[in-house]
């Protein structure tokens, strides 16, 4: 999809919440994630907002923007360098994110929403049934993958919007970097890689074939990598 984006629209498109909670989240994840995974986490939020707009969902009415940012930005916290790496990465990241939110004054209910959104972000067909936050995080992640995860919204993003997001937060071989991190985390403990889970299958495909099906699928991704 073509289309240009004005400087003003680009600035609005890539703006982060700027709240104390959002700033704290950035300060948590940036030092412990690779630049590629960090950028992916932020792009997930930016793309999730575009999906929300397409679905006529308004921040403040239909979802909490701080919680959306927290869930998107922390969704890969389970592969961070300082994580304990003792559970599958989705659950480990969800546990860390929920505890972080409680420590920063969020309610147990809000923390649980974020927990579900992170824990289920690789679970196609389940995340979409667990509320608006789960839907937006799942779709934001899928949109940043550019097609192989089955997003219905890739074509809704103009080239101008995509360029603005990718200029601010470059991809940096995202699929290879993220797969490396997931496989490394999965290999540390059998509990991290249950059979037929994303981390389990990534680990087994890398061990067997040297490359995951997801990495192969990126040859046809809109974003390339």
Instruction: Tell me the CATH architecture.
Output: Orthogonal Bundle
Any idea what the radius of gyration is? 16 Å
Name of the top-level CATH class: Mainly Alpha
First-residue to last-residue Cα separation: 18 Å
For the largest beta-sheet, the strand count, sense and barrel status come to: none
Number of helices: 11
Model regions low in confidence, pLDDT < 50 over at least 5 residues: none
Overall geometric form = globular
Describe the structure.
The protein is mainly α and 225 residues long. The protein has a single domain, classed as Hypothetical protein af1432 (Orthogonal Bundle). Helix content is 56%, strand content 0%. It contains 11 helices and no strands. Helix 3 (35-54) runs antiparallel to helix 4 (65-73) and helix 4 (65-73) crosses helix 7 (132-145).
């Amino acid at each position: 999809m073509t289309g240009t984006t004005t400087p003003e629209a680009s600035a609005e498109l890539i703006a982060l919440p700027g709240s104390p909670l959002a700033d704290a989240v950035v300060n948590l994840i940036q030092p412990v994630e690779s630049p590629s995974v960090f950028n992916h986490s932020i792009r997930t939020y930016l793309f999730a907002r575009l999906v929300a707009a397409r679905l006529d969902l308004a921040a403040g009415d239909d979802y909490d923007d701080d919680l959306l940012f927290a869930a998107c930005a922390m969704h890969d916290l389970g592969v961070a360098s300082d994580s304990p790496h003792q559970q599958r990465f989705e659950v480990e990241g969800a546990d860390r994110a929920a505890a972080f939110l409680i420590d920063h004054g969020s309610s147990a209910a809000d923390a649980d929403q974020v927990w579900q959104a992170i824990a289920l972000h690789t679970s196609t067909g389940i995340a979409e049934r667990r509320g608006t936050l789960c839907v937006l995080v799942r779709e934001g992640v899928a949109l940043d993958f550019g097609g192989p995860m089955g997003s219905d919204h890739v074509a809704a993003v103009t080239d101008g919007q995509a360029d603005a997001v990718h200029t601010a937060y470059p991809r940096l071989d995202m699929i290879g970097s993220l797969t490396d991190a997931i496989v490394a985390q999965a290999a540390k403990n059998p509990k991290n890689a249950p059979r037929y889970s994303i981390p389990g299958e990534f680990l087994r495909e890398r061990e067997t074939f040297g490359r995951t099906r997801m990495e192969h699928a990126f040859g046809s991704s809109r974003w390339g990598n």
